[in-house]
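Long-time lurker, first post. I've been practising inverse folding by hand and with some scripts of my own, and I keep getting stuck on stretches where the structure tokens seem ambiguous. Below is the full token string for one chain I'm working on. Before anyone asks, I'm not after the true native sequence, just a reasonable design that respects the backbone. If someone could post their per-position residues I'd love to compare against what I wrote down in my notebook.
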């Protein structure tokens, strides 16, 4: 039986409460998640990238064009939207520490998809979001105003997940 969920925040709960056996999605392998679920062998590698509008694109809802960010240091003081509890959220928190300045991380609800956030950037509703590189590149093909060139992470593994007490399913 296939169950579709838009709530990415509760993956561990869904698995460990036996509401789901397997999450077949692009889940970034993190130590935090590995405490409560098991990852399959990684399926691919990706990087997290900043999603922003290109220079010369129409300004956002503020009426002022957001500056194009080409260096992670330039994120200090910027508002970046990500889904709370996501690998993107954790990466921005760590990046803020690494660059020695505050990035304003705007936490979006768990049912807000990365694609929804990318669309908001493209439409000028928000200035910055974070996405995995593959998703960002696909969306940049649809929204020509998007720039997705700035990586904000090292390469990361992407895998499927099963509940922590399902070694046979994980092996299969």
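-- Answer (accepted) --
I ran through it position by position. Result:
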């Amino acid at each position: 039986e296939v169950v579709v969920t838009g709530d990415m925040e509760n993956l561990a709960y869904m698995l460990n409460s036996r509401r789901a056996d397997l999450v077949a999605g692009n889940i970034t392998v993190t130590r935090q998640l590995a405490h409560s679920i098991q990852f399959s062998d990684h399926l691919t590698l990706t990087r997290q990238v900043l999603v922003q509008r290109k220079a010369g694109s129409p300004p956002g809802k503020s009426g002022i064009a957001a500056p194009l960010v080409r260096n992670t240091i330039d994120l200090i003081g910027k508002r970046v939207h990500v889904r709370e509890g996501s690998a993107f959220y954790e990466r921005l928190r760590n990046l803020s520490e690494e660059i020695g300045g505050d990035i304003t991380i705007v936490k979006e609800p768990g049912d807000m998809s990365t694609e929804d956030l990318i669309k908001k950037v493209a439409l000028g509703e928000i200035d910055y979001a974070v996405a995995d590189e593959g998703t960002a590149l696909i969306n940049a093909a649809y929204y020509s105003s998007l720039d997705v060139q700035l990586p904000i992470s090292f390469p990361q593994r992407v895998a499927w997940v099963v509940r922590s007490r399902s070694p046979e399913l994980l092996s299969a």
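A couple of notes from the structure itself: The chain has a mean pLDDT of 88. DSSP finds six helices and nine strands in the chain. Happy to go over any region you disagree with.
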